[in-house]
Design brief:
By secondary structure, this protein is an alpha+beta fold. It has eleven helices and nine strands. It folds into two domains: about 260 residues, Alpha-Beta Plaits, CATH 3.30.70.1230; about 50 residues, no CATH class. Helices cover about 45% and strands about 15% of the residues. It is elongated and about 110 Å long. About 30% of the residues are buried.
Length: about 400
């Protein structure tokens, strides 16, 4: 059993190509010039290629101006998987400044790519959602089946991974799967994403209110009420939180007028933070622990589920150590016995008596091999003598 995984928080961000299904149906045979492939396929390929590049470029730009950048400047969001017209990114968050850099890059990428795709195809746009999940508990990292079939490792598909595996998953998330209730929640909230609003899980929204207080992000939060989500916190109504991502100045002004008419204003960050914290405590939602780059995590504040896993891991290590010790003692005993049997006797030591038949005077065996040969010879002589 290897080293117990450290506590870590990973950020997941999903971007979806809006309007792609209708676009494919409408332009299934449309091609640009002599292009061999239809336009819808080229637009999808460009989406897969260009959006990750935009995030990388923006991350490099923002990380250059944030404190603590030495700890995360090479930790830009990585593609975890693609599902249809959706790209999901994943990255381990090392500090609050790192989280701010990732969110700012993602929101700006939504705007930049939205403008790009709109200039090509007015019918297409992008929308996003984001969430966080804690590992190795209550969520788990497992080696993906696709990776296991190609490169067999000591870790089996579905097994609990050790720290070195978690570190690899931090760098190359595409080779792993992430399972757990916070992952499920992230996929559930994606239905609230719109081209002008980024949908958030409540634990990520809570973290972003901390960043907003420190002017690390410029988020405008909207509380959309509560809705029951299948499999999330036992079916209890879940707060729907979004961040405005509308890039059009005219549409922003229209949204402001609509909010005035509807009596809906942006949520005040401090009030929202207090509400979300109380909600998470009452509904037993794990509160993610992420600190500023110059602070250390207080282990006393880590989730109880992680403490339980760590204790169980320690017990497993002790059991493994005891089994290894017993195995080593057995091997040492076998070696000692073999050494005694193979060591020549000291001159003058009487040869051991054989029972039932005495050893002939001419035969003076000095080790077990010679004894066996002597017995075989005596048996052969007996059967060849004809005295039987």
């Amino acid at each position: 059993m290897g080293e117990c995984p450290e506590y870590r928080v990973r950020l997941f961000m999903s971007v979806d190509l809006v309007g792609s299904t209708a676009f494919k149906a409408k332009h299934s045979d449309r091609r640009d010039g002599d292009e061999p492939y239809p336009v819808w396929l080229n637009r999808t390929r460009s989406f897969y290629r260009q959006f990750p590049q935009i995030i990388d470029n923006l991350f490099a730009e923002y990380s250059g101006i944030l404190d603590g950048r030495e700890a995360f400047k090479h930790r830009s969001p990585k593609v975890w998987k693609t599902v249809g017209d959706e790209i999901i990114f994943c990255i381990r968050i090392v500090c609050l400044e790192h989280l701010a850099c990732c969110i700012r890059s993602f929101v700006k990428a939504l705007s930049a790519y939205g403008d790009l795709i709109n200039s090509q195809e007015p019918e297409l746009d992008v929308k996003g959602c984001a969430w966080v999940a804690s590992f190795p508990a209550p969520n788990a990292t497992v080696t993906s089946a696709s990776r296991f079939s190609i490169q067999q490792t000591e870790s089996q598909v579905g097994d609990q991974l050790e720290e070195k595996d978690e570190q690899e998953a931090d760098i190359n998330p595409g080779e792993y799967d992430f399972l757990g209730k916070q992952i499920d929640t992230g996929f559930r909230i994606s239905k609230f994403a719109q081209a002008h609003e980024l949908a958030l899980s409540i634990d990520l929204a809570w973290l972003l209110t901390l960043l907003r207080q420190r002017d690390l992000v410029d988020c405008q939060f909207t509380y959309r009420g509560k809705e029951a989500l299948k499999g999330v916190i036992g079916g209890a109504p879940y707060p729907i939180i979004t961040v405005q991502t509308e890039r059009s100045t005219d549409k922003r002004e229209l949204d402001s007028l609509e909010r005035t008419v509807a009596g809906v204003s942006f949520a005040e960050p401090i009030s929202l933070r207090n509400y979300l914290h109380s909600f998470m405590v009452q509904n037993k939602v794990e509160i993610p622990i992420v600190v500023l780059h110059h602070d250390k995590i207080d282990e006393a504040k880590l989730p109880k589920c992680y403490d339980a896993l760590k204790a169980a891991w320690g017990l497993g290590e002790r059991e493994d150590a005891e089994r290894e010790k017993a195995k080593q003692e057995a091997n040492d005993y076998d070696d000692d016995v073999a050494r005694e049997l193979s060591t020549p006797e000291t001159p003058g030591t009487p040869a051991p008596a054989l029972d039932p038949a005495p050893t002939p005077a001419s035969a003076e065996p000095s080790n077990i091999g010679e004894i066996n040969l002597t017995i075989d010879r005596m048996i052969d002589e007996y059967w060849s003598s004809g005295k039987w």
